[in-house]
Design brief:
Strand content: under 5%
Oligomer: single chain
Order of helices and strands: HHEEHHHHH
Protein name: Component of SufBCD complex
Structural class: mainly alpha
Number of strands: 2
Transmembrane segments: 20-38, 77-100, 106-124, 148-166
Distance between the termini: 23 Å
Largest sheet: 2 strands, antiparallel
Keywords: Membrane, Transmembrane, Transmembrane helix
Strand order of the largest sheet: 1-2
Number of helices: 7
Helix content: over 70%
Shape: elongated
Radius of gyration: 20 Å
Length: 176
């Protein structure tokens, strides 16, 4: 086997049948579930368990992180980002499910849940800035958000696995 063939095998566009896609998908969701608005979830967990240091850190850092999250949506930059995300998502959906491009289908299983995750983070940031929860309420809110992120992760991975199995079973070995 030549170096060229080995390189093409690593960069294969048959996403659902390669281990790298699944490692990247699980790694993405593992990283997304480890932090809430950029704050490690163990701080919220320790604050809920009664740690005064963790509660102080949580109450100090959360409004800062919420303001940073909301700053991304202010002005025309937020509108441009939403329009660009919608364009890319629509392009991936058309290429993947209308034209049958497997790489685009696999990218949809990253991009669509990522858009939902961003909406969830914006809603959390808006609620934190609007209601200014503190103490136990803030810790509960952060941990509840993490639970919803984990649910979104499990659902998206499950749907990707179902679609990937169906695609691999109905597509021939050479992509026919």
């Amino acid at each position: 086997m030549s170096l060229y063939q080995s390189l093409l095998e690593i960069l294969d566009t048959r996403s659902f049948s390669t281990l790298w896609y699944w490692i990247a998908l699980l790694g993405f969701w593992s990283a997304a579930g480890g932090r809430v608005l950029g704050l490690p979830y163990d701080i919220a967990f320790a604050a809920r368990q009664g740690s005064e240091t963790a509660a102080a850190d949580l109450e100090t850092m959360t409004p800062i992180l919420a303001r940073r999250q909301m700053a991304l949506t202010q002005g025309t930059g937020g509108l441009i980002a939403v329009a660009l995300a919608a364009l890319v998502l629509a392009l991936l959906l058309v290429l993947g499910f209308f034209y049958g491009l497997e790489l685009a289908q696999a990218a949809v299983f990253f991009a669509l849940p990522l858009c939902l995750l961003m909406l969830m983070r914006l809603a959390l940031a808006r609620r934190i800035l609007r209601d200014a929860p503190a103490g136990e309420d803030l810790a509960r809110l952060m941990l509840r958000h993490r639970g919803w992120v984990q649910f979104l992760a499990m659902t998206s991975v499950f749907l990707a696995v179902l679609w990937g199995m169906w695609h691999s079973l109905t597509t021939g070995v050479l992509g026919n």
